[in-house]
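Quick board copy: two proteins, each given as sequence then tokens.
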Amino acid sequence: MTIAVDFDGTIVEDRYPEIGEERVFATETLRMLIKQKHRLILWSVREGKHLEDAINWCRERGVEFYAVNKDYPEEKEEWNNHFSRKIKADLWIDDRNIGGLPDWGQIYQMITEGLTWQDLINQASRRSLQQHEAPKKKHWWNR
């Protein structure tokens, strides 16, 4: 699967143009996805030195992207008369999602188990209901 991943606010806390603190389990999750043969594309508004800083920050933590702000590594702007920064991916991980950014454990679970936000909400609701169920009434012989 090809997965486009935003940097600021997603992999790290949003402190642009600086690099914020890593979000918990972000690079660990990305390394696991790479190991499982997913193609990760860094999809960022960063350009120039700020983009290189983000790439190097990820590389220092063992995250090598398949491509950066393009569909495949060899893509050149001059080859494409209709060049667009819109990435062709199977899914996108971005802090600006409707509903916000799930935590990285949930993101991993959604990708590897094919779950949706609604699936996670339903699971959490079922767990919550189970924890709050009234204790079963004891019969007179079990007192």
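And the next:
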Amino acid sequence: MSDESLTLQLLKEQFPDKIIETHSYRGDDTAVVKKEAILEVLKFLKEDARLKYNFLMDLAGVDYLTYKKDPRFEVVYHLYSLEYNRRVRIKAPVDEDDPVIDSATPLWEAANWYEREVWDMFGIKFRGHPNLKRLLMYEEFVGHPLRKDYPITKRQPLIGPKI
């Protein structure tokens, strides 16, 4: 019998051409998904009665510039099934030349602020997001400070009170 989790088995059966790779280590399941299929895969994970990953615990951006990985960015979703007490990590590679992926806000309202943070810090856009604007930096801030190539000595425009 395979040691592979039910979650990873079902993902590979349901999306054989959309799952790039999977791995599991000590119950820590991860699937890498083509970005074009992210909403379809997330919806399946949330709504399938055998899985019910109904809680989006976190959503983050990763910049692999110093690792010379292609594509440069990933969006990472950490999901939890309250009913089955299971976790899964879903990763979607995103190109530097086209840093756009579909928004998960139709599935989880909590994705709203997570995606705004990733946009603000990494410059990854979320197609269909209801209010994609800066969350941590001010609107006049130039660049995305968690990108590995952001210059640490860069001067930003000064802002003052609106009169």
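Board note added afterward: DSSP finds three helices and seven strands in the chain.
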